[in-house]
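Consider the tokenized backbone below.
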């Protein structure tokens, strides 16, 4: 097997690899963002549906751009170009035809259902309505709102009654509930995580994150996952067979992070970020440091020399992808107002921390 040359950066080869990597990442990205995400809301008019969505998104319903009627009964609240929360009629609506049309909408269009119960009490009609919606086969999250009735000063005061009520409800509906208080923002992050889990199919978690105010945890998961993948590729972004998949990985990460912060980016925008860090002097310095470290530890030379170099290359690939991801997060979170010098500083700090923590 020919040895890789890690000391040399071929500008033309990298440019070609970037173009190929960007094109592939953009194809995959466009397939996701051209989809539509609809989250249906079921519950009485006073069950806290709107206030819960306000807490999940950090936006008041009045700030939503438009309301589009799917039928006279179902209202689609548009929170992004292709992200909607569908408000359905109250459960106590006696009109059977209204109920049927609502069910048709849910079965044909909804990606996930939030079904709201109230901590102040539930009845047989609520249980029956939940069972009927459950038959649609759609992912459904039972949400128990107003649990602040058991709290005092943000501390759970009446735990016994709280636990007994939840247990009774879960036994009735045969499902686990997410207990929340939209008023006090209790467990809203837990509900957010559950929604993310259920809409991951076909990458729709990306669509949801665009309107969710809980972005940071998922960005962390993306960056850690990309770093692990980069290590598996087993090289740094320098000439070699691994440059295209690694570049595709990093471009894809940048596109996803930009999207959830509502930043529209071009090929040139992403290229300048990658060029300012990964292919620049910072990247060379990181690799030279890694090689010097191995030499100092006596790992290089002999029959295992090339294997040790490859191990370092994998570690550097992971660390550089990690640093690039966090720098992108800061850059796009700023609305692309951050200068490249600060971007490079964040990249250098984060990749160095990652490398130091994982070199052993």
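A designed sequence for it:
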């Amino acid at each position: 097997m020919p040895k890789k040359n890690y000391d040399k950066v071929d500008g033309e080869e990298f440019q070609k690899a970037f173009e190929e990597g960007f094109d592939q990442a953009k194809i995959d990205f466009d397939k996701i963002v051209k989809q539509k995400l609809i989250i249906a809301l079921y519950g009485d008019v006073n069950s806290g549906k709107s206030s819960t969505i306000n807490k999940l998104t950090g936006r008041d319903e009045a700030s939503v751009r438009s309301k589009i009627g799917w039928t006279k009964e179902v209202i689609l609240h548009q929170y992004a170009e292709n992200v909607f929360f569908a408000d359905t009629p109250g459960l106590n609506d006696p009109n059977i035809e209204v109920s049927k049309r609502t069910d048709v909408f849910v079965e044909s269009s909804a990606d996930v259902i939030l079904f709201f119960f109230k901590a102040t009490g539930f009845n047989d009609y609520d249980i029956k309505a939940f069972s009927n919606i459950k038959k649609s086969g759609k992912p459904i999250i039972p949400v128990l709102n107003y649990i602040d009735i058991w709290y005092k000063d943000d501390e759970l005061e009446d735990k016994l009654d709280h636990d007994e009520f939840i247990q009774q409800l879960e036994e009735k509906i045969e499902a686990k509930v997410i207990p929340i208080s939209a008023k006090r923002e209790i467990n809203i992050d837990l509900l957010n995580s559950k929604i993310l889990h259920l809409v991951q199919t076909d990458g729709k978690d990306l669509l949801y994150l665009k309107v969710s105010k809980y972005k940071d945890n998922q960005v962390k998961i993306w960056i850690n996952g990309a770093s692990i993948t980069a290590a598996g590729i087993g090289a740094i972004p320098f000439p070699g067979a691994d440059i295209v998949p690694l570049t595709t990985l990093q471009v894809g990460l940048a596109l996803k992070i930009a999207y959830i912060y509502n930043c529209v980016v071009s090929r040139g925008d992403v290229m300048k970020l990658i060029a300012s860090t990964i292919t620049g002097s910072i990247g060379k310095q990181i690799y030279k440091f890694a090689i010097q470290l191995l030499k100092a530890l006596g790992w290089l030379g002999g029959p295992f020399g090339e294997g040790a170099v490859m191990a370092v290359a994998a570690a550097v690939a992971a660390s550089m992808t990690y640093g690039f991801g966090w720098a992108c997060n800061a850059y796009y979170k700023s609305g692309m107002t951050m200068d490249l010098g600060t971007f490079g500083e964040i990249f250098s700090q984060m990749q160095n921390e990652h490398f130091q923590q994982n070199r052993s």
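The chain has a mean pLDDT of 81.
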